[in-house]
Amino acid sequence: MFREMRRGKQALSVEACEEVLERGTAGVLATAGDDDYPYAVPLSYVYDAGRQAIYFHSALSGHKLDAVQRNSKVSFCVVDKDSVVPKEYTTYFRSVIVFGTIRILEDSAEKYHAIEALAIKYAPDDSKEGRDGVIGDGLRFCMLELKIEHMSGKEARELSRHKIDIAADKWKLRDIMCLYEKESRAVYSAEAAGWGDVIVKISEDKKELKSGFDMLKTLDGTGCCKAYEFDAALGITVIERIFPGSPLREEPNPEERVKAFYSVFQMIHTGGEDYEGHETYMDWLERAEQFCKDNRLGEEISEKMHRACQIGREMFAKYSERVLLHGDLHHDNILLGSDGYYMIDPKGIVGPEIFDIPRFLLNEFGYVTELATHNIKAHLRRMLKLMAEKTGYSVEDMEKLLFMEGILEAVWRIEDAEEELSSLDCFFKEELV
Questions:
Q1: How far does the chain reach from its first CA to its final CA, in angstroms?
Q2: 242-287: per-residue pLDDT in tens?
Q3: pLDDT tens digits, residue range 377-389?
Q4: 97-153 residue pLDDT tens
Q5: Which of 430, 427, 394, 397 is nearest to 412 (CA)?
């Protein structure tokens, strides 16, 4: 029914399209207007990933409502990027178009959900009481729901290259090599005149990029790579490149892996800072639980995600200290340097320091050659004992957090449309240890 994109290499993934819809603040709704003329109207909107829908506020009457009542089939376009490059007679662009059917919401609960979602997007700092004071029961509002049937996005392949060219001029970079490139992020190695060998990270998720950079800057090379520069407008960070840079994954000895992990773990957590603007681990867990509810993922996984949130709250209460966590301290984010191991790529999320342990333990599944449950159990019992001896945390608490982390990872994979959960299946079958 819907056409394939002619230039497929410029197509955005579903994930990247959703990122554009999440970031955008306005788009253009195209309808079949009066006398067979198309009617395209710019609108504010909110995207609901769980319901695969877009919500709009509308006047109670007018051209738009007449059009959608005659013909419910519409399209909606959001332009995410439009950088004009005069010398090339072109633009470096990124945009998304969705197709679907639109309806006027009549049910009071549906209307309230749509209005509240818009309010949270455009007035995120307001309280629920403040929002409800404006929304009331929602009956006086006219709300539209566009149910998405097809989504496509496109971007100029030059976008990342354009940014790395700007970075090269700004920070005198040379010998630039692309290490990783995806729709909304890229990683380059380079040599900088003032810093030597560096890694340049480009990401559209500027908030996460900034949180990680802030953590590296605070630590100033203690147990981590150094942070040099952050450009908020472009979404670029420049950080130290670690040599030889071998990931901890390559260490075959479990005792040595735990030892290396702990050498980094004990150095990177700082407390007593102002963490305004940083998310907490509970934010992650609660969003995942809401995703399960919105997408009706089934009783088993929803119950386990609810239990994961309970564990998170229990551990937040038990361990009162708050530090900046790495948030993803697995084997490939711990690299061998000239005089020990260093962490890279932190998320800069807030919580008790014990929350940086389960991600490492979760990666230990990769060392079990046969994914039989008894093999996983035996290996995890060994790793939990080694970790308890090194960190002083109890096996029971780390086991609970490992369950929490495994369920969170499984839900994230489902959210990213990764059906194969491989070793994470055991989190849904029985207790781990």
A1: 50
A2: 999 999 999 999 999 999 999 999 999 976 566 777 899 999 999 9
A3: 788 889 999 999 9
A4: 999 999 999 988 898 899 989 989 988 888 888 877 777 766 778 999 999 999 998
A5: 427
Domains of the chain, start order: 8-156 (2.30.110.10), 159-240 (3.30.200.20), 252-429 (3.90.1200.10)
Question: b or e along 89-101 (b: 16 or more beta carbons within 10 Å of the residue's beta carbon)?
Answer: eeebbbbbbbbbe
Give the C-alpha separation, 199 to 428, whole Å.
Answer: 38
Contacts of residue 196, Cβ cutoff 8 Å, sequence gap at least 6: 241
**Separation between Cα atoms, residue 151 and residue 56, nearest integer Å:** 18
Spatial separation of the C-alpha atoms in residues 74 and 32, rounded to whole Å: 8
CA distance 348 to 355: 12
Q: Which of 160, 8, 14 is nearest to 81 (CA)?
A: 160
Cβ contacts of 144 within 8 Å, gap of 6 or more:
55, 56, 57, 58, 68, 102, 103, 104, 105
Count of residues in the chain: 433
Q: Is 339 helix (H, G, I), strand (E, B) or coil?
A: coil
- Which residue type is seen at 102? I
Beta-bridge mates of residue 227: 239
Question: How many Cβ atoms sit within 10 Å of the Cβ of residue 184?
Answer: 21
Give the chain's radius of gyration (CA, Å).
Answer: 24
Residue 221 carries which DSSP code?
Answer: T
Q: CB-side exposure of 162: number of CA atoms within 13 Å?
A: 18
Tokens of 247: 């990931």
Cα-flanking dihedrals φ and ψ of residue 329, to 5°?
Answer: -85, 65
Tokens 């497929």 sit on residue: 8
DSSP secondary structure of 224-287: BPPEEEEETTTTEEEEEPPSS-EEGGG---HHHHHHHHHHHHHHH--BSS--TT--BHHHHHHH
Identify residue 308 by its one-letter amino acid code.
A
**Euclidean distance between CA atoms 169 and 166, whole angstroms:** 5
Q: Which DSSP symbol is given to 4?
A: P
Tell me the C-alpha distance between 225 and 237, whole Å: 12
